Amino acid sequence: MKLLSKLLIIPAFILPLCFAAPVSADAKSDYEYQYSQYQEHYLEYTLLKKDYLDNPTLDNQQKAVLAAKDSLYARDLAKASYAEYLLNLIAASKVSYTPINPLIESLTAAKNYFSNEALKSQSIVTAADLKNFSADYVVNSPAYDRSFRTGVVAYKIAKLVRFQIDLKDSLDIILPKLATPFSSALQNRIDELQSKGNDINSQIETFTNDLYTEEGVQEIDNENFFSERSETIKKIQSLQIKWIDSLIDIDLNYAHS
Amino acid sequence: MPIPKLEITNPEAIELLEKIKTGAAFTPILNWFKKYRWYFVGAGVFLVLIIAMVIGKKIAEGTPAPIITPPDIESITPTEQVEVKSTFSGLKKEIQDLNTDLPDPFIPTFESTLDLEPSAL
Known about the structure:
By secondary structure, chain A is mainly alpha-helical.
């Protein structure tokens, strides 16, 4: 009998561990899952809070506090997973671009902060605890929330830098294929490509550094923060397209395989 | 043998012969024809049309319809367009496909203040 009970107890511990495996395989699906969890819990919290305010019994208060705890936990995990998602997107560009490092560091700090907040929220017991937690959160979280806004810009910068590296590599591939000595017209075109490439690099660097200036930091929370940055990214993208058009023209007309 | 001479003595026959000689016997018939002459003309035209259609049908059945085919024209085969592609076209497409809109990915919104206080509204 004892043996049988042991045999039953072991699977009872092992099976839940199997089902507790990570729900998602990558950062994006993890973030989407966490965000959906937050939406579910938040809806439940609003309903239970309303019940409590309409009928303020101890039981209703406890239910509302528990729902708020679940919402806080889901919210901060969703934020941490969003930061992780952005970090993954930046890393996928496979660039080591020093000017965006502070933006990456602030995203990492945000990820850690929100992960800690998620854990901290689990110590809430009373309505007063909940109120204090939210009061602290309102003061401390905006700095970390801001890192999301700069983080999405950092992701685009990483992409632009990746393109710059690929464009430079393309020019290096094509140069040995050109008949030497270069005609003056061809030499001029190559010089122009190199010069324009450097110009684009400078524009990306200026664009990145502008995020750290006093004026740039003040603009982060502005409504037009994204629209202005988007315009600059578009401008750099069009310069890169012109650059590669010129390179393709050289490839088709001068290079030999 | 001499042919005997016929002598009509019947007064009714004599009267009829007289009417035929003078044409008075035909007057009612001519009047009847005059009265219905347009019916006769119409019937005649209709009859001619029917006869023409029957004859036309017979001729058409006898001669098979000619097969009319358009004249042969020289078929034009389109010249093969050889698309000149550079090895760097893929990179160009990657650059073009970059979504320049911000924020991308979209930043989710969250409620910062979760408590049991009545809302300020």
